[in-house]
From TrEMBL:
Metal-binding recorded as keyword: yes
Protein name per Swiss-Prot or TrEMBL: Ferrochelatase
Top-rank taxon, per record: Bacteria
GO cellular component: cytoplasm
Catalytic activity reported: Fe-coproporphyrin III + 2 H(+) = coproporphyrin III + Fe(2+); heme b + 2 H(+) = protoporphyrin IX + Fe(2+)
Pathway: Porphyrin-containing compound metabolism; protoheme biosynthesis; protoheme from protoporphyrin-IX: step 1/1
Top-level class of the enzyme under EC nomenclature: lyase
Residues annotated for Fe(2+) binding in this entry: 210, 291
Family of the protein in this entry: Belongs to the ferrochelatase family.
A GO biological process held by the record: heme biosynthetic process
EC number assigned by the record: 4.98.1.1
Chain's role: Catalyzes the ferrous insertion into protoporphyrin IX.
């Protein structure tokens, strides 16, 4: 087996620490070609689709990709911004603000970078660049609060696969989940209360999480339980009783049974039962994306109103909210304890500039809150 070429090393080189904020990914453009390329990488991951490879190859390449790419591209186009994909834009801003928030806490030497599990910037490319820049300590921070083998597990697979080709592997730490982290729950509570202040409070709060096949729960994946943990803690922070909120699951795919109750049918049933106003939040997504902006804020809203509902309030994802950035910094800090994170010796000008930019952004965000 051949290994990647190691970067030049000089004695006295300062070992450096990095945090990699990893999100799911997004197409490079809202076009059928770009979406097809993205979907092929995403849906080829055996963590995402647990079907025998030969059978799935035929389904994916002969049915799904030829017919779904254009339809998905149109959906992406409906939420695309001037700056690009919302998920990528928000994740990049979070990384910049996290760099500043970590710096404000005294960890000036920590670099924070963004990577995507699928699409660009790819996780292997980001890890390779950190190696070139002599980062010897790397913490992997998934953008997924709730662990699932299909999400966080897949990120870990990609990290291990990359370092299997590296001779001198850096020290690694993996953040598995933070479904019940108090700062994260508080940030969600603040988002809901801000929506209530502007739009009024609906009759029921729907907490919609990304769906997974029910089979994964039966095989021991903790995702379902962690979603309910988040939902229970958020409801408690908001003072909601069991009849005032629901945990549901969206984004079904295929004919197999998925985690229930399903979001869209639940909203339709509520409307037909006489519920006129609902608030919907997607706690499992820390950045707004196709699944929140199009599937929930557009499609689910249409379904609810068409079934007789009168008001549908979508609560935006945490995105760059000050409470969320503060929570993210606390989560990251808890996992880099013991690593040198202060600049020592000759400070690299690039590091100082990054620290100053990040701190200024974080302080500005805090002042605007």
């Amino acid at each position: 087996m051949s290994f990647r070429k190691e970067p030049p090393f000089k004695h006295g080189t300062v070992a450096r620490t990095a945090i990699v904020l990893v999100n799911l990914g997004t197409p490079d453009a809202p076009t059928p070609k770009a979406v097809r390329r993205y979907l092929k990488q995403f849906l080829s991951d055996p963590r995402v689709v647990e079907i025998p490879r030969a059978i799935w190859w035929l389904i994916l390449n002969l049915i799904i990709l030829p017919f779904r790419s254009a339809k998905s591209a149109a959906k992406y186009a409906s939420i695309w911004t001037r700056d690009g994909s919302p998920l990528r834009v928000h994740t990049q801003k979070q990384a910049t603000l996290l760099r500043g928030a970590i710096g404000v806490r005294g960890h000036d030497a920590v670099r924070v970078v963004m990577a995507m599990r699928y699409g660009s910037p790819s996780l292997p490319e980001v890890l390779a660049k950190l190696k070139e820049d002599h980062f010897e300590r790397v913490a992997i921070l998934p953008a997924y609060p709730q662990y699932s083998g299909a999400t966080t597990g897949s990120i870990n697979d990609a990290v291990f696969a990359h370092y299997a080709t590296v001779r001198n592997v850096p020290e690694l730490r993996f953040i598995k989940n933070y479904a019940g982290h108090e700062g994260y729950i508080d940030a969600l509570r603040d988002s809901v209360m801000a929506s209530w202040e502007v739009n009024g409070r609906g009759e029921k709060l729907i907490m919609s999480f990304h769906g997974m096949p029910k089979r994964t729960l039966m095989l021991g994946d903790p995702y379902h339980c962690e979603c309910h943990k988040t939902g229970r803690l958020l409801a408690a922070k908001l003072g909601l009783g069991p009849d005032q909120y629901m945990v549901t699951f969206q984004s079904r795919f295929g004919k197999a049974e998925w985690l229930q109750p399903y979001t869209a049918p639940t909203l339709e049933a509520l409307a037909r039962a006489g519920v006129k106003e609902v608030d919907v939040i997607c706690p499992g997504f820390t950045s707004d994306c196709l699944e929140t902006l199009e599937e929930i804020a557009i499609e689910a809203k249409h379904d609810f109103l068409a079934a007789g509902g009168k008001q549908f309030n979508y609560v935006p994802c945490l995105n760059e909210s000050p409470a969320w950035i503060a929570a993210l910094a606390e989560i990251a800090e808890q996992h880099i304890i013991g690593w040198p994170t202060m600049m020592t010796g000759p400070q690299r000008e690039a590091d100082k500039r990054e620290a100053e930019i990040g701190r200024a952004a974080a302080l500005k965000l805090g002042a605007a809150d």
